Amino acid sequence: MSTSLSRSLIALLLFFLAAWPVNGQAIQPGTDTNAVAESDSLERGFLPLGGFSTETGLGLGGMYQSQRYTDDHFPLREFFQIQGIGFTTLNFGFQTAYKRRSENGHRFESRADLIKLNNAYFFGIGPSTVFSKSDFDDGLNDYSRLDLLVYTEYGRVISRPRSDRRLEWYNGVLMGYQRHTNFSESRLGLDRPDGVGGGFRQAFYTGFMADFRSDLFRPDSGSLYKLQLDFFPSVLGNQSTLASIESSAAAYRGFHLVTDLVFAARISMKQVFGKAPYYELPYLGGEKTLRGFHFERFRDQGRIFTNLELRTWLFSLPFFNIEIGGQFFADLGTVYRHPFEAGWYRHIRTTGGAGGVMSIYNRDFIVRGDLGISKDGWMIYAGLGYLF
Question: Among 47, 149, 157, 244, which is least packed, fewest CB within 10 Å?
Fold first, then answer.
């Protein structure tokens, strides 16, 4: 769920709909049906959502997810997820993702985001931008924004597809557009950074991924490493030619202390090269980086952040195949012009908080909620799956 929408949404579970669990067999033409050894397992779940706040008005939406496995649970063959919510104030967020893996190691993935915010926020550029509650309440940080992003990605396994060490090389295309309005009297209009007003976003990217996790949805051991290079050529309509490099590493360790626990940690770095419009600069703040700060609270040419989580599953309920769990977390990070900038570590920001998770219908349909606390205030987030 878009962090700018979910930060003002107190999610309510309105009602549950059936999950339609399906088990069937994948049968090739000419195959003896009595000799089929493997089966496709399809699991689906849908969860309606609603909420209200004085800032966004009444909102209604839902979350849907389906997974198809080659066997009962592993390996994952096909994945589809969609989340959306719309408000009476004409704010809305819509996100969808599709992934398919073949048995010979090919992966196809596509993602699309469409978000309209009448109360997006701009706080300035740099690691020491100041948050003023009076300015925020007076709307000085407000502007309106429309975001459209579409990613298409192809990956090829360069290790044995069924081994527990999945090494993959991937390539992709990003296409998007961003439009800004109602900013003339806001901080965005006063500062007028490069890219104010919006523009097209077209890029090619390539990357390498090493996935050693024990499970895609509930990892309790292993690690995940990614390195990605992006190129935005001006000839495709971008404001300027620029490039970026991003790397991340995540590790998971399960242990038992009264109950089963998992310690999860992630570190991520990104650096942009070239004269980038402000909306292409790496940011911190929001559900995916520093929970507790407003979405895109800090921006600059580079960033580094870490997420730490202590996760557990607590108990099960005898209906709808429900499991209930929770997590404590701490996030820290900063932005900078470049990683060798003197004193960049003095601007490291920290946040903390707690949240809950619920799997419903099947073990991999996980609904997550987090409460993040920072020196600027607190934020509530809702979405599908663990953060990382």
Answer: 149
**What is the spatial distance between Cα 266 and Cα 281, in angstroms, rounded to a whole number?**
21
Q: d(Cα 305, Cα 264) in Å, to the nearest integer? A: 14
Count of Cβ atoms closer than 10 Å to residue 134 Cβ: 7
- pLDDT score of 320: 80
How many residues does the structure list for the chain?
A: 388
Tokens of 117: 């915010």
Distance between CA atoms of residues 142 and 96, nearest Å: 27
Residue ranges with strand state E in 258-301: 259-273, 283-284, 298-299
Average pLDDT of span 133-156: 95
Each as own residue / partner, the long-range contacts of residues 97-104 (CB below 8 Å, 24 or more positions apart, any chain) are 101/75, 101/76, 101/77, 101/161, 103/70, 103/161, 104/161
Residue-wise pLDDT for 6-46, tens only, equals 444 433 443 333 333 333 333 333 444 344 334 567 788 88
* Beta carbons of 56 and 38 less than 8 angstroms apart: no
Q: Which of 215, 255, 165, 223 is closest to 364 using CA atoms?
A: 215
Question: Which one, of 240, 246, 145, 153, lies nearest residue 200 by Cα?
Answer: 240
What the chain holds in terms of domains, given with CATH numbers, is: 3-384 (2.40.160.50)
The number of beta carbons lying within 10 Å of the beta carbon of residue 164 is 11
Find the radius of gyration of the CA atoms of the chain: 22
SS3 190: helix
The answer to whether residue 238 scores a pLDDT higher than 50 is yes
Q: Which residue bears the tokens 């099947």?
A: 362
Q: Is the dihedral of CA 295, 299, 302, 306 positive or negative?
A: negative
Q: What is the pLDDT of residues 276-307, one digit of tens each?
A: 999 999 999 999 999 999 999 999 999 999 99
What is the b/e burial string over 266-305, where b = at least 16 CB atoms within 10 angstroms of the residue's CB?
bbbbbbbeeebbbbbbbbbbbbbbbbbbbbbbbbbbbbbb
pLDDT band at 318 (very low <50, low <70, confident <90, very high): confident
- Would the pTM count as exceeding 0.70? yes
Q: If you write DSSP's letter for every residue of 315-357 in order, what string do you get?
A: EEETTTTEEEEEEEEEEEEEEESSTT-TTGGGG-EEEEEEEEE
Q: Compute the distance between CA of residue 195 and CA of residue 189 in angstroms, rounded to an integer.
A: 11
